[in-house]
UniProtKB/TrEMBL annotation:
SUPFAM superfamilies found in the cross-reference section: Translation proteins
Species of provenance: Penicillium desertorum
Cellular component GO terms, alphabetical: ribonucleoprotein complex; ribosome
HAMAP family named in the record: Ribosomal_eL33
Source organism, top-level taxon: Eukaryota
GO molecular function, one term: structural constituent of ribosome
Name this polypeptide is given: Translation elongation/initiation factor/Ribosomalbeta-barrel
InterPro entries: Ribosomal_eL33 (IPR001780), Ribosomal_eL33_CS (IPR018266), Ribosomal_eL33_sf (IPR038661), Transl_B-barrel_sf (IPR009000)
Amino acid sequence: MPSEQGHRLYVKGRHLSFQRSKHALTPNTSLVKIEGVDDTKAAKFYLGKKVAFVYRAKREVRGSNIRVIWGKVTRPHGNSGVVRAKFRNNLPPPSPSALPSALCSTPPTSKRILCVVFSGRFPSSHRRSVRQGKVDGTSRC
């Protein structure tokens, strides 16, 4: 029985960094920490799922300043529930304000949001409405 608020079809996550080695950085593979995922077994559920990097831009395009970069979860990374994801365009580097800091007394604020979408495919009309910011509050990232 659905509640009045509806069902949420996504889970929030954070862009931690890019995949890296001791010296090199690989910007085409991003490391994403998904809320509520703490081990490799739980991370395997998200393999192949769509990921949307949602952010607000200054300039308005087609009536909205909300932009989306789509990607896909490719594999788990380590044992703590972090996953690797590849996006159509490389993501911008994580801003310092998005990362928690022990020195800051104020909570970090970032205009960038990352969602992991459960459903494999949405109709194109839904993708268009997400881009334009016209999705209702229950399923909006």
